[in-house]
């Protein structure tokens, strides 16, 4: 999920500033490595969320406004499940129905939760995230 966070952070930053930024500048704001930013934004570029400009004043820029891009669009670019099951309990060849079936039951649950999460992401735009950041700024009394 960290790639999703990097993507959302970077895209909101690009849209908020309505400018072109290098992977180094984005990485500094995101607090990660520029290589990670390039890998993530390459996926976003393939989905048409960002474009790149080459040259001295080159970098990444958003292809549309923040209102037009949903978090589902970002999720589909990154292609990493929100909820992942990296370990399975039990053993499929056991005679015990719990041991032999739990991994499949949990995988089904995670699939269902991911579908619900993706449906929710379709209702949230990058602009909504920017608005949330303004609210956080106001609560803290700080400036973005």
Written description of the protein model:
By secondary structure, the protein is mostly helical. It has one domain (2-140): Arc Repressor Mutant, subunit A (Orthogonal Bundle). It is built from 6 helices and 2 strands, in the order αααββααα. The protein has a two-stranded antiparallel sheet. The longest helix is centred in the last third of the chain and has 25 residues, at 97-121. The radius of gyration is 19 Å and the shape is elongated.
Characteristics:
mainly alpha, single chain, 59% helix, 144 residues, two-stranded antiparallel sheet, Arc Repressor Mutant, subunit A, 6% strand, 2 strands
From the helix content, strand content and strand pairing, which structural class follows?
mainly alpha
Indicate how many domains the architecture comprises: 1
Measured distance between first and last alpha carbons: 24 Å
Number of DSSP strands?
Answer: 2
| Number of alpha- plus pi-helical segments | 6
The overall pLDDT average reads 94
For the CA atoms, what is the radius of gyration? 19 Å
Low-confidence spans: pLDDT under 50, at least 5 residues?
none
CATH class, please? Mainly Alpha
What fold name stands as the CATH topology? Answer: Arc Repressor Mutant, subunit A
* Biggest beta sheet attributes: 2 strands, antiparallel
Give the overall silhouette.
elongated
The strand line-up of the biggest sheet is 1-2
Please report which band the strand proportion falls in: under 5%, 5-15%, 15-25%, 25-35%, 35-45% or over 45%: 5-15%
The CATH superfamily turns out to be Winged helix-like DNA-binding domain superfamily/Winged helix DNA-binding domain
CATH architecture: Orthogonal Bundle
How much helix is in the residues? 55-70%
Provide the succession of SSEs: HHHEEHHH
Protein name: Transcriptional regulator
InterPro entries: Tscrpt_reg_Rrf2, WH-like_DNA-bd_sf, WH_DNA-bd_sf
Pfam families: Rrf2 (PF02082)
GO molecular function: DNA-binding transcription factor activity
């Amino acid at each position: 999920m960290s790639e999703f966070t990097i993507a959302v952070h970077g895209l909101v930053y690009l849209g908020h500033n309505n400018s072109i930024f290098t992977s180094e500048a984005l990485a500094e704001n995101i607090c990660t490595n520029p290589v990670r930013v390039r890998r993530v934004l390459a996926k976003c570029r393939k989905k048409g969320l960002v474009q790149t400009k080459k040259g001295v004043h080159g970098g990444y820029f958003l292809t549309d406004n923040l209102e037009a891009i949903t978090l589902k669009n970002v999720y589909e670019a990154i292609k990493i499940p929100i909820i992942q099951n990296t370990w399975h309990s039990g053993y499929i060849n056991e005679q015990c129905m719990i041991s032999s079936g739990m991994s499949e039951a949990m995988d089904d649950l995670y699939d269902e939760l991911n579908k619900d999460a993706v449906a929710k992401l379709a209702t949230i735009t990058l602009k909504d995230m920017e608005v949330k950041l303004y609210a956080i700024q106001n609560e803290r009394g700080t400036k973005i």
